[in-house]
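Good morning C.,

I know you're traveling, so I'll keep this short. The sequence:
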Amino acid sequence: MSTVSVVIPCYKYGHFLADCVKSVLDEQPGVDVRVLIIDDASPDDSADVARALAAADPRIEVRVHEKNQGHIATYNEGLLEWADGDYVALLSADDRLVPGALVRAAALLDAHPEAGFAYGRPLRFRHGGPLPAARTRSTGSVVYPGRWWLERRFREGTGCITSPEVVVRTSLQRKVGGYDPELPHAGDIEMWMRLAAHADVGYVRGADQAFYRVHGNNMSTTDFGGQLDDLRQRLVAFDSVLDKCAGLLPDAGRLSALARTRLARYALRRAYRAYDRGRTGVVPVEELEAFAAACLPQYTGLPEYRALRRRRRIGARAMPYLQPLVLSAVADRGREWLWWQSWKRRGI
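The tokens, ready to paste straight into the viewer:
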């Protein structure tokens, strides 16, 4: 029977802990699971909740920080210092696993020693709302060549993993190292890419693997300046992978060009979509264009720049009314739909 170490970092999320731990220990038959809850000096009763759970189940350990160390240090403490199972998973205290998720991931990794980690589809749910219905019967799995999967990330300029749905081979996690403290907001994508530079990537088909809680005022939907910060963090993440894995990636220059071109296009697309949606007053259009220029000096040759220039000529007031008639806006919606369909079917 495979062994899985599950690290649950917690900061002021004690009220979610019982459900999180239950999803790990009571809903994963077929694997030997141990849990470490690390409370990062929460000012509420989270540590007491964690200790009470541990007192009731010997499979649970608890560590409590006297001083707040931040999420990256907390993650790495569990992943690199404590985890000793065949596989390791990092699960935020406010998220949950889908029943059987660890069994499905462990089965994939058992059958494919060349795979360094496995993931599947996460289900997002709104904080305060009910859990969505989850699929628990897998229709199989696929193992993507690591370098191919990695190049796809550079080519697309974005990740395809949320985080709680991932199970990593512990030996590879130790070899590659932990989360980078210089990347507090893009550490996840950088980590998955580093792992893919060393090993192949498994994907569980057909079944959902985790519940990811979306809290109110989520940055990705309300903070337009935060979207620019996200692009900047992604660029640092891609550069970090190329630096740390230089010996494994002889075509680093080509990969860098792919990522920088894609990120420049993303930035320009967000800039011109601000005109479509009447949001030029809140979206940092000029900063997005400056970011595109920093990524790709020849950015003015991109179709997204031409779309931005066209909208500037039309004007911010008129553009929202003309959006349905502009081909690039229609193409955007089609492109987004195709990406989501691919992600739903293949995880990429």
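Safe travels,
E.
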